[in-house]
Design goal:
Shape of chain A: elongated
Order of helices and strands of chain B: HH
CATH topology of the largest domain in chain A: Cytochrome Bc1 Complex, Chain C
Order of helices and strands of chain A: HHHHHHHHHHHEHEEHEH
Radius of gyration of chain B: 14 Å
Largest sheet of chain B: none
Structural class of chain B: mainly alpha
Number of domains of chain A: 2
Number of domains of chain B: 1
CATH architecture of the largest domain in chain A: Up-down Bundle
Number of strands of chain A: 4
Number of strands of chain B: 0
Oligomer: heterodimer
């Protein structure tokens, strides 16, 4: 049952690729650039975030007024606020399409676990940065969300009260609360770039930016939506009179919506389980290593005397596991006598796939437990084995 | 190509709307027109590219 559902999801994902390729020119298929689109929205978020930061006043008295001044008093301020607001939504949409596409097409297995895990951490940090953004506006909804956050933190059995006090900067909402929320908004957002390095480090040629057509389209869509549906605030927060309900922005505020149906402790536990399952996905494969095609051939090694520095292996390795360094000595073979570069394998990144062996025309790379002579021996043994009886 | 022509003309209309928005301090109108212009420009690029590809395949 689960397997059939999975195959259907996989088939639907691939059919979406084919459908869009027919509709658009293949190079413009946005499904091939979902990570790049997320980067585009992140860039818009950072630029507009810096501009908004210049006007934002993180104090109980001034926060709401500063946001209102930005929206109504600063030329195009309402547009910048809208761009920040809607780019955050676009960011989440791109991330989720990226996640599900890679999940349904099995691009999280084996050597790709690093990308999957870093992606999950990126998702958690992005969600947290987005969520805290809603608290900074300091309208009635922000006040309710802050009180719900404190309630959730206090429901944590060990250290919950301490976390709530750290979040608020005291036993209740006070002058240091909003600077803390601002820090909790900006710090995870800045961390995203370090996490992106982790996300990309094992990829040879990641598509980090969408084609110009999609950059123009997304920027246009952001400007259009920001003008047609301007981002607005609710009534100013009045401590002691938080509203009982709020408009749910589903991309970021769903944890609070959960708390409408579940006790805070259970809602937190459910979120924890979802994150833990996300991190477990690459390791949930039940097949044995042999069934998974893992051969244990040892990481690729460079036969230095044969390396000509041609860079073919460097360009072919999909895991960015081969670097070219300046060669200070000539190789021993005739072809390698005048080399300028030498290939070096970064062992922790090598997945023993053997692609570099096929890429090298000079026999300068080998898998230590599957040498040429071993392959020849296997072929010879196979040729001599009796043919299976016809059934 | 007919659709591309319509989009190009609509794009000129958007430029007019942007100028009006700036002149009349209608920032939302100007920004919406800018957004539409960018989206239509990207559509024009795709249409030309598809037309070019189709011509190349013949």
């Amino acid at each position: 049952m689960t397997k059939r559902l999975w195959l259907r999801l996989q088939s639907a994902t691939l059919k979406a690729d084919v459908f869009i390729n027919r509709l658009l020119y293949q190079d413009f298929n946005p499904l091939y650039y979902t990570g790049g689109l997320a980067n585009l929205f992140l860039t818009v978020l950072v630029i507009t975030g810096i501009l908004i930061f210049l006007y934002y006043e993180p104090s109980l008295e001034g926060a709401y007024a500063s946001v209102q001044f930005l929206t109504e008093g600063v030329p195009y301020g309402v547009i910048f606020r809208g761009l920040h607001r809607y780019a955050a939504d676009g960011f989440m949409i791109a991330i989720f399409v990226h996640l599900f596409r890679n999940w349904f097409t099995d691009r999280y297995r084996e050597a790709r676990d690093s990308q999957w895990i870093s992606g999950m951490v990126l998702l958690v940090f992005s969600g947290f940065a987005g969520l805290t953004g809603y608290l900074l506006v300091w309208d009635e909804r922000s006040l309710l969300l802050v009180s719900m956050t404190v309630q959730a933190l206090r429901s944590i059995p060990l250290g919950g009260n301490w976390l709530a006090t750290m979040f608020l900067g005291g036993p209740g909402i006070n002058g240091t609360t909003l600077p803390r929320v601002l820090a909790l908004h900006i710090a995870p957002a800045m961390t995203l770039y370090a996490l992106l390095w982790w996300h990309y480090v094992r990829l040879r040629a990641p598509r980090v930016w969408p084609p110009a057509v999609w950059v123009l389209f997304c920027l246009g869509a952001l400007f259009f939506v920001s003008a047609v549906l301007p981002a607005t605030s609710g009534a100013a927060a009045q401590p002691g009179s938080a509203p009982q309900s709020f408009e749910v922005a589903w991309f970021y505020l769903w944890p609070y919506a959960l708390m409408k149906w579940l006790a805070p402790a259970w809602a937190l536990a459910l979120i924890g389980v979802i994150i833990a399952y996300g991190l477990y996905i690459p390791y949930s494969i039940r097949e044995t290593p042999a069934e998974r095609g893992l051969r244990g051939l040892g990481q690729a090694t460079v036969v230095e005397e044969n390396c000509t520095g041609c860079e073919l292996c460097y360009y072919d390795c999909p895991y960015n596991a081969i670097y070219m360094v300046p060669s200070h000595e000539p190789g021993k073979s005739k072809a390698a006598a005048n080399r300028k570069l030498l290939a070096v394998v970064v062992e922790p990144r090598c997945v023993e796939c053997g692609i570099c062996i096929g890429a090298c025309p000079f026999e300068a790379l080998e898998l230590p437990r599957l040498l040429d002579k071993d392959v020849q021996e296997m072929i010879r043994a196979g040729a001599q084995a009796p043919a299976p009886a016809a059934s | 190509m007919g659709l591309a022509l319509v989009l190009i003309l609509a794009g000129l209309g958007c430029v007019g709307a942007m100028l009006y928005g700036e002149w009349a301090s209608q920032k939302l109108v100007g920004s919406a027109a800018l957004g539409l212009l960018l989206m239509m420009f990207s559509a024009v690029v795709v249409l030309f590219r598809k037309a070019d590809t189709a011509a190349g395949e013949e």
